[in-house]
Amino acid sequence: MAHGKFKLCVFGPYNAGKSSLIQCLDPAARHIEARCEGGTTTVALDYGKVQAGGETIYLFGTPGQERFEFVRQILARGMDGAIVVVDSTAGPDPMVERLSEWLVTRNVPYAIMLNKCDLPGSSPSRFARENGDAPVYLVSAKSGENVHEALSLFIQNLK
Ligand SMILES: Nc1nc2c(ncn2[C@@H]2O[C@H](COP(=O)(O)OP(=O)(O)O)[C@@H](O)[C@H]2O)c(=O)[nH]1
Ligand SMILES: [Mg+2]
């Protein structure tokens, strides 16, 4: 997979911190919100580009809401790896489990980023059992803690 360019998709539930993570990795990242029927719901996408581990990484943030499965399918085409962002202050989420299973079936290497570790309610041990073989990194997309380091480590694993 060492072709110098990586497409990474960022998955995870709504509000987990996907957009913040991409913004943290690339301050020039674009955040796109498209309004759906009636203007009450939005589909949010993100795009960023960052250098890590000597490679150029293209980051595609996917919408978290369950009903945007079709958008995730489109964005996922040709991805070399994935990041699953999890809110470490929240309880285990069935969507995270489904995403992980889907990535395993598709043979896509992925990392779990347990986000919001700066908050007092952060409890990473809650997720310890559900991650299979995927590497798990504790990060804060808000403070930036461990974000670049986690990405670099994950990229090294992919090469
Ligand atoms: N305290 C804290 N708040 C965060 C962190 N990451 C994201 N947030 C907040 O969580 C909310 C959702 O973040 P966002 O990136 O929009 O989530 P998305 O829906 O997954 O894209 C926002 O209010 C963020 O400011 C973090 O690491 N720490
Ligand atoms: Mg978002």
Strand proportion: 25-35%
Low-confidence stretches at least 5 residues in length (pLDDT < 50)? Answer: none
Average pLDDT metric = 90
Structural class: alpha/beta
Counting copies of identical and different chains, the oligomeric state is single chain
Strand-helix topology:
Elements: E1 5-11, H1 18-25, E2 30-35, E3 42-52, E4 55-61, H2 69-75, E5 81-87, H3 94-105, E6 110-115, E7 136-138, H4 147-158
The structure holds guanosine-5'-diphosphate (GDP) and magnesium ion.
Structure description:
By secondary structure, the protein is α/β, with parallel strands linked by helices. The protein has one domain: P-loop containing nucleotide triphosphate hydrolases (Rossmann fold, 3-Layer(aba) Sandwich), CATH 3.40.50.300. The chain contains four helices and seven strands; from the N terminus they run E-H-E-E-E-H-E-H-E-E-H. The protein has helices at 18-25, 69-75, 94-105, 147-158; strands at 5-11, 30-35, 42-52, 55-61, 81-87, 110-115, 136-138. It has a seven-stranded mixed β-sheet, sandwiched between helices. Strand 3 and strand 4 form a beta hairpin. The model has no long low-confidence stretch (mean pLDDT 90). It binds guanosine-5'-diphosphate (GDP) and magnesium ion (MG).
Summed up:
With 159 residues, the chain is α/β, with parallel strands linked by helices.
